[in-house]
Amino acid sequence: MLTILFDGIAYGMLLFILACGLAVTLGLMNFVNLAHGAFAMAGGYITVVLMGWYGVPFLLCLPIAFVSVALIGAVLERTLYRRLYEASHLDQVLFSIGLVFMSIAAVDYVMGSRQQIILLPDVLRGRFDLFGVQIGVYRLFIILVCAALTVALQLALTRTRFGSRLRAAVDDGRVARGLGIPVGLVFSTTFAVGSGIAGLGGAMGGEILGLDPSFPLKFMIYFLVVVTVGGTSSITGPFLAALILGIADVAGKYYMPEFGAFTIYAVTVAILLLRPHGLLTREAGR
To answer: Domain for residue 251, yes or no?
Structure first.
C-alpha cells in the first residue's frame, strides 16, 4: 500500500511539472495554450537526440531541455502568441490546437512515429527498501526535483518584484505600462519559463510516460484536468490536484485494472462537484 502511495506521489509530481506551465499561462496570463504538450514533447525529443546522437549524460540533458524549450517558447511568444493575447478564448484554442497538429506532423516526419526510449543512468535505476516501502530511485528523484520547483515557483510568484509585476500586468496592462512596468518583457519571460518547465517535464517523463509524436494529444486532457481541479489562482492548487489525481490513477490501475484510466476521471468529477471553481480558487475570484 505504501509503495503504491509513493509511486502515486511520484506520478502526481510528474503531472504537476508537465502541467504547471499551463497553470501559469492560463491562470496568470489568462491565455488558453492547448499546445502546452508540444513544448513538453520538444523537451523529451531534445533529450532523446542529445543522449542518442551525441552521448550527452541524462542529468545534463535536463537543464539543456529546459533552456532550449524556454528559448523556443520565447521566440513563439514574440512572433505568434503575442498577437492573440487580446483575442477570444476560442481563437486561442483554435490557434494552439493548430500548433499541436503541426508539431505532431513535424516530429513524425523528422523522428518517425516509433516510441522513443530514454535510458536512465545507473545512478537513477533500481529500487531500495525503506521501512518496508519499495522506493524507486528515479521516482524519488522526480519527487525531489518537483518539490524544489514548486517552492521556487511559489516564492517567485508571491515574494518577488517580478511576481508583483506579473500580477499587475495581468490585472490591468494599461495601468502597468503607465507605471513603467515592461509588460511585454514580463509576459515573454513568464511564457518562456512556463514553456521551459514543460520541456523539463517532457525530458523527465519520457522514461515513465513514453514518448512519441502523439504525446501532446495523449496527455492534453491530463494537463487540463490538473489545472481545472486545482484552480488557476495559484501554483499550490494544481500541485495538490496533481498529487490527488496521481495517487488515484496509480491506485485505481493497481486495484481495479479493468477500469483503466476511469478512476482519475471519476475523482475529477467528484472534486468538481464539491469545488466547481477548483480546490484553491475562491468563488468570487477573478
So the answer is: yes
